[in-house]
Amino acid sequence: MDCGYTEHSHRHISIVSHRAGDILEKLGYPERTVELAKIAGYMHDIGNCVNRKDHAHSGAILAYNILKDMGMPVEERTEIMMAIGNHDEETGMAISEISAALIIADKSDVHRDRVTNKNLSTFDIHDRVNYAVTDAKLEVKSEERKVVLDLTIDTELCPVLNYFEIFMNRTMMSKYAAKYLKIWFELVINKNRLL
Q1: C-alpha distances in angstroms, 164 versus 16, 179, 189?
Q2: With contact defined as beta carbons under 8 Å apart, do 50 and 58 qualify?
Q3: CA distance 102 to 96
Q4: Domain span at 86
Q5: Other C-beta atoms within 10 Å of 110: how many?
Q6: Which of 133, 138, 151, 155 is CA-nearest to residue 192?
Q7: CA dihedral sign of residues 20, 26, 27, 31
Q8: 142 vs 21, 25, 58, 139, 157, CA distance in Å?
Q9: How many CA atoms within 13 Å lie on the side-chain side of 121?
Q10: Does 85 have pLDDT greater than 60?
């Protein structure tokens, strides 16, 4: 599913699902909590099939009903619903461990593979910034109680400042989500620690 500026298809949801689970697993959360974070990550953008605007809320309702029909206990499907409903930077915030992990996992997926527009001459700022990111790693350092988003940005394609023009809200949301998990969020761009 391609919605808006970047892809939200199987590639994106697989990365988000894996990262959300990895964050909680490395921080020592129970296996079932890790599994619920993975499910939330996999389903988090399902609301895009309704509309990109307010996709988090419509997606939360869709996911809740799908999981209900599959027989998931109400407590678990409610956790997933709340995480999905709070993953968008315009209306959401970390309200649980699962939602915090989902936010960090989702907001850290910036990379040229997400650009759906293949015509460089028509790139807008979102295309340009994502395309300029040639390498993106999210590393959980449990001993140091931090998560590190390490980006390599080709500054010939896009200055680092452009990254912050569109990602500042997402970066701050990730920082507060990490704080909810009692860890530090660190941003490294081109080997420079910025946050």
Answers
A1: 21, 20, 11
A2: yes
A3: 10
A4: 2-193
A5: 20
A6: 151
A7: positive
A8: 14, 10, 34, 9, 34
A9: 0
A10: yes
Task: Report pLDDT digits (tens) over 52-78.
Answer: 788 999 999 999 999 999 999 999 999
Q: Into how many domains does the chain fold?
A: 1
Per-residue tokens: 42: 């996999």
Report DSSP letters for 85-135, one per residue: HT-STTT----SHHHHHHHHHHHT--SGGGB----GGG--HHHHHHHHEEE
Distance CA 112, CA 69 (A): 37
Q: Which residues contact 190 (CB under 8 A, 6 or more apart)?
A: 151, 152, 153, 155, 160
Hunting for tokens 């996911």 — which residue is that? 63
User: Which residue do the tokens 């619903």 mark?
Assistant: 81
Q: What is the CATH number of the domain that holds 89?
A: 1.10.3210
Q: What is the average per-residue pLDDT within 14-39?
A: 98
Look up residue 12 and give its two tokens: 């994106």
